[in-house]
């Protein structure tokens, strides 16, 4: 692989702008010399930051714009007045083929709305989703939707399965990723109507490009039971943030426990190599980057408050996805899946699917 | 306080039956000498277990029944054939006033269904909820609904707020508990229609017996931002289990990290006092017990796999709730709230509430 790829970067996004985006890109370039970059934003600030990175300088182009979308702008506002901004232009570059992927650490809602408008959903996909890479005891899994939309029909949940599987193929290099539907129990009778109908749908179609494993519960996410976990965006977002909160809470318990006595302090000092291992395992920067899946192009959202190391993870992710041919494969998979579905609907539609399994006919 | 209270126990519930239920009750009695117990189940097994606890023997009565509800029985089955079982009889005892609260470590769905049928919801409450005590960095909070039902209307979410506040008053001894609605963002425009309408509803009513704090996100649960967190049961159950899974995941990282080198092992040995502090903080047995809120009586569900220490926590919780006069207070609060609501609906109904705010008119 290692084919040359161009990443379009919103240099002004996030809490720090070019001072994080530029060194982040430099770090990613060290790992992946086939990369080149287009930076969009305030030229003098980008120039100043890039001057310290001669290797990056040689592989980068800067497109100046004064126009920046603020962190708290509403998606609807951003759509109306975002054209020409440092967030909009990278997505345009992906659309025209000038770049292979876009990365921004800016306003998530605005980025999602603009990406959807500029890149457009893949034919047959009603709703794009935001996918997160979630660390597990075994390695990592993909969870989607973590907040692009609230609620999802059975058909949309089934589409999410294919979208997540395509991403798992791209970033974990697993040909037939295992997929589970997040639910409040693993028995067939559990869950809401959409989840039950999605389950029936995924069981009813043969030869999916994934291994459907049925329902999984919240405690199975971190156990690494499956490669891809599908859930509608309200519960998915709450799960993601609850896990982040729990991790912080336990870190704080651990700090307090390790300073609770002189002996514990000495022990913690001696065990600092072990604590370093733990810290690395739990470092949220390692898996920084929510991906908008289901669009005709790759757009990755980096965490707004991250540093260069974290931003580089988001760029790495964008590169891997661009390099894997994910979009073409997903477009074909969705097409085949929807054809099978309409075939199945004509023949033996799953009984518990209420209405059209795709929720759009 | 410390008024005499009788707790009715399903001696056969959970993975271990009387061998855990009996010593659990004995432990709780040590802490709270005003307690007495009625055990329901296999008399010889209960007698054998109780023989080792003379203090408990003096405060306990045994009601024999052969009839036990299995862990995997469906709620509908349990309702049809559960009468006279070791799970049903304690709830009957609460209903007749023979006991002040019931505790079971049995099948959750069956217990919920039977409790609802036997004890009946408080007038005005459409749906009972399961409340969990959730450890936070500061102390503890209450989260409901963690899985009694899927989905909730705005009016039901508002009722959950009062139910959670009543429980916080009983177990945390806070007169005006703070309450937050779990959502995917803290801005007013975020969330689904039910959550937005519940928010408008809670803001619109003056003089609630709680302090309504607006939306909270998943990462704020463990931070202890509010005393009570309200969410419908699908997302609430997923949040609870995701947090449990994350805690286990980090424990496993920690174990691996502390055995990653000889120095780490020595350090961990020296710091074992600190690790004990951490283990106690994270011990799920300390806050064992989901409570069914919104019924005319107190029913607590202990974790099925817990030991005597964990079962005792569930008994403690049942005692505290019985001792606090929770049901009478909640019944009055709900009545006042619903009257205010119908007053407000006649006058200035909140604009963003779609349809009837109580979703039942």
From TrEMBL, chains A, B:
Enzymatic class: transferase
Cellular-component GO terms for this entry: cytoplasm
Listed EC numbers: 2.3.1.274
Molecular functions (GO terms): phosphate:acyl-[acyl carrier protein] acyltransferase activity
Chief place where the protein resides: cytoplasm
Keywords assigned: Acyltransferase, Cytoplasm, Lipid biosynthesis, Lipid metabolism, Phospholipid biosynthesis, Phospholipid metabolism, Transferase
The organism's place on the tree of life at top rank: Bacteria
GO biological process: fatty acid biosynthetic process; phospholipid biosynthetic process
Name of the featured protein: Phosphate acyltransferase
Source taxonomy: Bacteria, Pseudomonadati, Pseudomonadota, Alphaproteobacteria, Hyphomicrobiales
Gene this protein is translated from: plsX
């Amino acid at each position: 692989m290692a084919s040359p790829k161009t990443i379009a970067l919103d240099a002004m996004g996030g809490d720090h702008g070019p001072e994080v985006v530029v060194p982040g890109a430099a770090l990613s370039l060290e790992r992946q010399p086939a990369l080149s970059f287009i930076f969009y934003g305030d030229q003098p600030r980008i120039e100043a930051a890039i001057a310290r990175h001669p290797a990056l300088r040689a592989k980068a182009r800067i497109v100046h714009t004064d126009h920046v979308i603020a962190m708290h702008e509403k998606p609807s506002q951003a759509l109306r007045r975002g054209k020409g901004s440092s967030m909009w232009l990278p997505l345009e570059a992906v659309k025209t083929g000038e770049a292979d992927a876009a990365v921004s650490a800016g306003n998530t809602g605005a980025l999602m709305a603009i990406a959807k408008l500029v890149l457009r959903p893949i034919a047959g996909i009603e709703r794009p989703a935001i996918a997160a890479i979630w660390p597990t005891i075994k390695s990592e899994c993909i969870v989607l939707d973590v907040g692009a939309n609230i609620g999802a029909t059975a058909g949309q949940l089934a589409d999410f399965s294919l979208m997540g599987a395509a991403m798992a193929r791209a970033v974990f290099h697993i040909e037939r990723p295992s997929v589970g539907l997040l639910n409040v129990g693993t028995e067939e009778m559990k869950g809401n109507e959409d989840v039950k109908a999605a389950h029936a749908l995924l069981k009813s179609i043969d030869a999916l490009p994934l291994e459907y494993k049925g329902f999984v519960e919240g405690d199975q996410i971190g156990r690494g039971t499956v490669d891809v976990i599908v859930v509608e965006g309200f519960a998915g977002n709450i799960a993601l943030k609850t896990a982040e909160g729990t991790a912080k809470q336990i870190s704080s318990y651990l700090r307090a426990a390790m300073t609770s006595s002189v002996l514990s302090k000495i022990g913690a000092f001696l065990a600092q190599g072990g604590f370093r291992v733990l810290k690395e395992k739990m470092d949220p920067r390692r898996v920084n980057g929510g991906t908008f899946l289901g669009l005709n192009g790759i757009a990755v959202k980096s965490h707004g408050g991250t540093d260069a190391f974290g931003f580089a993870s988001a760029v790495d992710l964008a590169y891997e996805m661009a390099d894997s041919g994910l979009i073409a494969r997903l477009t074909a998979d969705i097409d085949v899946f929807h054809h099978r579905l309409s075939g199945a609907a004509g023949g033996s539609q799953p009984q518990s699917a209420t209405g059209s399994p795709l929720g759009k006919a």
